[in-house]
């Protein structure tokens, strides 16, 4: 928990995907001497994609040598690809320092992807959730045994939790993670084992006692429809989360509010949980996970 008056800003980094279509479909043939089949990948397109990805992931652009180091391509190959991409306006070059930056075509693609990603709509839902509860609101996605924070809208109060998009949190330490696991397709016992593997195996009483405790917690989350978690590293910080359900049985995302536990007493948890569940319902159907490269 931090004390700050800085305005909240959420950020989104678009991930580019390049694809090539062939006029005919061919089946890869096995190589000589039992070698595996040749890949149908078009090498020049794959290399161009790697160059674009390296430039996009760099906040200040990259030189030819820097691109070569990040992509494991030769400098001469990068030189040819970068100049070809620049001539097609996918990249541009800063004349002052010879660094390559995203070009106008790439920026148009990013804007188009953003318009259809559901991210602006998701940010609006978070803004309304933060306004209604007075607490910081965040969306997170499950990645393995972690939760990746995608978007966050801070509370307007001077004493608040500051969400950090891009942060990865162990499932065990996240209310979003608990909500995702509780409403997933796995049995409660198996879901509890996932949480145990994430970092609870050394808890007092051993893994069996720990798993039993997790089963009880997950059953309670299912009964209430939302998860409540006091931060294990800062007991004064509390979070209330709900899963974002969809057509698939697999639950990958959740939404939460987080702030001082003193502002979320037991008597208000049902009211806050209902508000968070309403936000989760509003997020259903938005392709936010696709925008962040999950699918």
Provide a concise account of the structure shown.
By secondary structure, the chain is an alpha+beta fold. The protein has helices at 43-56, 64-71, 75-87, 104-115, 119-133, 175-182, 188-197, 206-224, 269-283, 288-291; strands at 2-3, 91-94, 99-102, 136-143, 146-153, 159-160, 168-170, 227-230, 237-244, 253-260.
Please describe the structure with a list of short key phrases separated by commas or semicolons.
295 residues, alpha+beta, Beta-Lactamase, six-stranded antiparallel beta sheet, 10 helices, elongated, disordered N terminus
Describe the structure.
With about 300 residues, the protein is an alpha+beta fold. It has two domains: about 40-115, Arc Repressor Mutant, subunit A (Orthogonal Bundle); about 115-290, Beta-Lactamase. It contains ten helices and ten strands. It has helices at about 45-55, 65-70, 75-85, 105-115, 120-135, 175-180, 190-195, 205-225, 270-285, 290; strands at about 1-5, 90-95, 100, 135-145, 145-155, 160, 170, 225-230, 235-245, 255-260. The strands form three sheets. The chain has a six-stranded antiparallel β-sheet with strand order 7-5-4-10-9-8, sandwiched between helices. Strands 1-6 form a two-stranded antiparallel ribbon. Helix 1 crosses helix 2 and helix 2 (about 65-70) packs across helix 3 (about 75-85). The two termini are about 35 Å apart.
